C-alpha cells in the first residue's frame, strides 16, 4: 500500500517536472523571441523607465504625426501612441511606406516599428529616440472631413443681426442727442 | 474708513473693459480668415461666432457704461485685472468648440496660460489641431506677452493718463517714449520686426530640416510668437523636440533671450546705444544668474551621469535652463524625464532659474532681474556700512539707461514683489501637496505656473483636481500682472462689500 502510494507520488512528480520543463522551455523561447524581435512597449513605459530600456531592441506602435522630415538617406518620423510622440530615426526607404501623416485633415498611418531605443542618443544630441530597423503598417490612415452644421450657421447669422441692430440703435441714439 | 465704490467707478471700469474686449473681438478675425483660406470651415466658424460674442459683450459694455472721463489709478488697475479674466473666458470659446478640451475650465486654463505667456497646456491631441486653432493659441500668447492693454492702446484707446494706468497695471511701469501711445506702438513695431525676422529664420530652417513649405513657415511663426513672448506653446505635442534639429534649438534660444530682454533696452539698441547692454543692471544680473543656475544644473546632471558627454549635457541642460530662465518653457526632453532622470540638484537649479525669471518690462515672468539686482546692491550697501568706518558715506547706484542711486523706495518695492512671488510659489506648492503630489514636483509645477514658465513635470494634466487647475489659473494671472492689479481688484471687492457710502 505504502509502495503504491510512493509510486503514485513519484509518477505525479515526474509529470509535474515534465510540465515545468515544457513551461520553462516556452518561457525561454518567448524571452529569446522578444529579445530578438523587441518588446512591444508604450511611450510612457519608455520615458518612465528609459534607463531600463536604453540600448535594447523594442517594438513601438502608434500613429505617424506631423511631417516626415527627410535628412539625406534617413528620415525623422514622429509616432504618437496616444500618450506621447517619440521621434523615430529610420532609413528613408522605410519612411517611403508611409502614406498618411496625422494632422487636422487626416488620421496618420498606424505603424509598428522595431529598433534600438536610446535614452539619450549620442548621434542625435541626446534626444530620446528609437533607431528603427523595420516598419510594419498596421492600419492605413485616411482623410478626415468635417461638416459645418446648420445650427452653427444659423447661430452666427442671428448674432450678426443682433450686432447690426445694436449698432443701428446706437447710431440713432447718438444722432438724437447730437453726441460725437 | 473704506469708501464704497460709486456707480461712476463701475461705469468707468465697464467702459474701458468694453474697449479692451472689442479689441480682442477684432483679433479673432485673424484665425477666422486663416481658417477660411485653408478651407477649415468648422474652425473658421468657431472663431466667427467667438468674435461675434466678444464684440457683442464689448459693445454692450461700452454703450451701457459710456463715459468721456479718464480712469483714476484704482479704476485702471481693476479694469486691467478684470480684462485679463474676461479675455480668458471669451478667448476660450473657440478653443472649447474645437473639441480638444474636456471642459470649458480646461479651455480657460489654456487661454489664461497663453495670455500670461505661461505655456502649460490641458489640450488633448495637439497633433490634430486645426491651423486656425493652433494659430489662436500662439496669437493669444503674442498679445499677452506684449500686454492686452498695449494691444488696445496701440490701436483702440485714446491717449491720456488712463492709458498709462492700465499699462502700469499689467506689471510695466517703464515708459520707453514720453507718450504712452508711442510706447505701446514702439513695443508693437519692435515685435513685428522681430516676428518677420524670426519667422523667416525658423521657416528657412524648417525647410532645411524637411518640413513641408507651408508647415515650415507656419511652425516658424508659431514658435516665434510663443518663443519671443516666452509662452512656450508649440504646434506639436513634442514641443521643440519634434524638430530634432540643433540649428532650430539655437535660433529658438536667441528668440527666447530677445523676449526676456527689457523693451527699453531694445529701444536703446535700436538707437545704436550698444554699450547699454554691457552696463545695464538687468543684463549683468541675467548673465550672472544664468551662469550660477547653469552651474547648479550641470553639477546635478554630472553627479548622476545623466548625459554621456559634456556636449550633450550642454545642449540639453543649457536649452532647458534658458527656456526656464526666460520663462518660455520649451522642452527638448519629456516632462517625466525631469523627475525620473534629472535628480533633485539639477531640478533645484531649474526651479531657481524659473523663479528668478527674465528682465522687467519684457515678455518674461518671474521675480525679474531688476529686482534681484537691486536687492543684491542693497545687500552690498548694507555690508559696506558694517565693514567701513562709521564716518564713511556709503552709496550704491545701478545703471539702467542712466545711473540711478539706490534708495529705500527702490529696495522696498523690489522686496515686496519678491516676497509676493515667493509666497505665491509656496502657496501653489502646498495646494499641490494637499492634492497628493510630492513636494518637489508640486514646487516645480507651482513655480512654473506663477513665474509664467510652462515647464511641467507631469502634474498638469486634464485629470488633475479642479482646485489645482483653479490655483494655477490664479497663479498665472497674479504672476503676470505682478500682483498690484490683483490686489486692487481684491480691495475693490472688499470696499464694495464692507465700504461706507
Task: Indicate the topology.
The complex is a heterodimer of chains A (180) and B (501).
Chain A: H1 2-37, E1 39-40, H2 43-48, H3 50-53, E2 57-71, E3 74-80, E4 85-91, H4 92-95, E5 106-107, E6 110-121, E7 127-139, E8 142-143, H5 150-176
Parallel strand pairs in A: 1-2, 4-7
Antiparallel strand pairs in A: 2-3, 2-6, 3-4, 5-8, 6-7
Chain B: H1 7-27, H2 29-37, H3 41-64, H4 73-97, H5 104-115, H6 131-146, H7 148-155, H8 161-169, H9 180-208, H10 213-228, H11 246-260, H12 263-270, H13 276-279, H14 281-304, H15 310-325, H16 335-356, H17 369-387, E1 397-400, E2 402-405, H18 408-434, H19 439-450, H20 466-481, H21 484-498
Antiparallel strand pairs in B: 1-2
Helix pairs in contact in B: 1-3, 1-4, 1-7, 2-3, 2-6, 3-4, 4-5, 4-8, 4-21, 5-6, 5-20, 6-7, 6-10, 7-9, 9-10, 9-11, 10-11, 11-15, 14-15, 14-16, 14-17, 15-16, 16-19, 17-18, 18-19, 18-20
Amino acid at each position: 500500500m505504502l509502495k503504491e502510494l510512493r509510486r503514485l507520488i513519484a509518477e505525479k512528480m515526474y509529470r509535474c517536472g515534465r510540465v515545468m520543463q515544457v513551461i520553462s522551455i516556452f518561457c525561454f523561447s518567448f524571452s529569446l523571441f522578444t529579445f530578438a524581435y523587441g518588446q512591444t512597449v508604450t511611450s510612457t513605459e519608455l520615458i518612465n523607465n528609459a534607463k531600463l530600456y536604453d540600448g535594447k531592441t523594442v517594438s513601438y506602435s502608434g500613429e505617424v504625426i506631423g511631417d516626415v522630415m527627410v535628412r539625406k538617406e534617413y528620415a525623422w518620423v514622429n509616432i504618437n501612441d496616444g500618450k506621447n510622440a517619440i521621434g523615430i530615426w529610420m532609413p528613408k526607404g522605410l519612411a517611403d511606406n508611409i502614406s498618411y501623416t496625422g494632422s487636422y485633415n487626416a488620421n496618420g498611418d498606424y505603424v509598428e516599428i522595431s529598433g534600438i531605443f536610446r535614452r539619450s542618443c549620442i548621434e542625435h544630441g541626446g534626444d530620446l529616440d528609437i533607431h528603427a530597423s523595420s516598419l510594419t503598417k498596421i492600419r492605413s490612415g485616411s482623410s478626415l472631413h468635417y461638416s459645418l452644421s446648420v445650427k452653427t450657421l444659423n447661430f452666427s447669422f442671428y448674432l450678426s443681426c443682433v450686432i447690426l441692430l445694436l449698432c443701428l440703435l446706437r447710431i440713432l441714439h447718438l444722432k438724437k442727442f447730437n453726441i460725437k | 474708513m473704506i469708501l464704497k465704490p460709486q456707480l461712476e467707478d463701475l461705469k468707468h471700469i465697464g467702459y474701458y473693459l468694453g474697449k479692451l474686449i472689442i479689441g480682442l473681438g477684432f483679433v479673432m478675425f485673424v484665425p477666422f480668415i486663416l481658417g477660411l483660406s485653408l478651407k477649415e470651415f468648422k474652425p473658421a466658424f468657431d472663431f466667427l461666432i467667438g468674435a461675434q460674442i466678444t464684440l457683442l459683450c464689448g459693445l454692450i459694455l461700452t454703450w451701457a457704461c459710456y463715459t468721456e472721463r479718464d480712469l483714476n489709478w484704482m479704476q485702471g488697475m481693476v479694469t486691467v485685472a478684470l480684462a485679463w479674466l474676461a479675455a480668458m473666458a471669451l478667448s476660450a470659446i473657440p478653443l472649447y468648440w474645437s473639441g480638444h478640451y474636456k471642459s470649458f475650465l480646461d479651455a480657460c486654463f489654456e487661454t489664461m496660460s497663453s495670455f500670461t505667456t505661461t505655456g502649460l497646456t490641458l489640450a488633448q491631441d495637439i497633433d490634430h489641431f486645426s491651423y486656425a486653432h493652433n494659430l489662436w493659441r500662439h496669437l493669444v500668447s503674442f498679445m499677452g506677452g506684449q500686454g492686452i492693454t498695449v494691444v488696445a492702446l496701440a490701436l483702440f484707446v485714446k491717449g491720456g493718463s488712463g492709458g498709462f494706468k492700465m499699462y502700469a497695471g499689467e506689471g510695466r511701469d517703464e515708459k520707453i517714449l514720453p507718450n504712452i501711445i508711442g510706447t505701446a506702438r514702439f513695443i508693437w513695431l519692435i515685435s513685428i520686426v522681430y516676428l518677420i525676422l524670426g519667422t523667416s529664420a525658423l521657416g528657412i530652417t524648417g525647410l532645411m530640416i524637411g518640413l513641408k513649405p507651408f508647415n515650415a513657415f507656419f511652425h516658424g511663426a508659431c514658435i516665434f510668437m510663443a518663443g519671443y513672448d516666452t509662452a512656450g506653446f508649440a504646434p506639436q505635442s513634442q514641443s521643440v523636440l519634434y524638430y530634432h534639429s540643433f540649428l532650430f534649438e539655437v535660433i529658438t534660444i536667441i528668440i527666447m533671450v530677445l523676449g526676456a530682454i527689457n523693451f527699453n533696452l531694445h529701444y536703446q539698441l535700436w538707437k545704436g546705444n550698444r554699450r547699454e547692454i554691457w552696463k545695464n543692471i538687468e543684463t549683468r544680473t541675467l548673465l550672472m544668474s544664468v551662469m550660477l543656475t547653469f552651474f547648479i544644473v550641470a553639477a546635478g546632471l554630472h553627479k548622476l551621469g545623466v548625459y554621456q558627454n559634456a556636449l550633450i549635457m550642454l545642449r540639453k541642460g543649457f536649452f532647458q535652463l534658458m527656456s526656464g530662465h526666460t520663462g518660455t518653457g520649451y522642452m527638448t526632453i519629456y516632462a517625466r524625464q525631469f523627475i525620473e532622470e534629472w535628480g533633485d540638484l539639477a531640478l533645484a537649479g531649474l526651479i531657481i532659474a524659473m523663479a528668478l525669471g527674465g528682465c522687467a518690462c519684457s515678455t518674461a515672468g518671474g521675480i525679474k532681474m531688476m529686482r534681484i539686482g537691486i536687492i543684491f546692491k542693497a545687500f552690498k550697501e548694507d555690508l559696506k556700512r558694517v565693514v567701513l568706518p562709521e564716518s564713511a558715506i556709503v552709496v550704491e547706484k545701478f545703471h539702467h539707461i542712466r545711473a540711478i542711486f539706490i534708495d529705500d523706495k527702490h529696495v522696498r518695492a523690489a522686496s515686496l514683489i519678491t516676497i509676493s512671488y515667493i509666497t505665491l510659489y509656496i502657496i501653489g506648492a502646498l495646494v499641490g501637496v494637499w492634492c497628493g503630489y510630492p513636494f518637489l514636483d508640486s514646487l516645480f509645477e507651482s513655480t512654473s505656473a506663477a513665474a509664467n514658465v510652462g515647464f511641467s513635470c507631469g502634474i498638469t494634466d486634464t485629470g488633475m483636481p479642479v482646485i489645482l487647475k483653479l490655483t494655477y489659473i490664479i497663479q498665472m494671472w497674479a504672476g503676470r500682472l505682478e500682483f498690484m492689479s490683483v490686489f486692487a481688484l481684491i480691495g475693490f471687492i472688499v470696499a464694495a462689500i464692507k465700504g461706507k457710502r
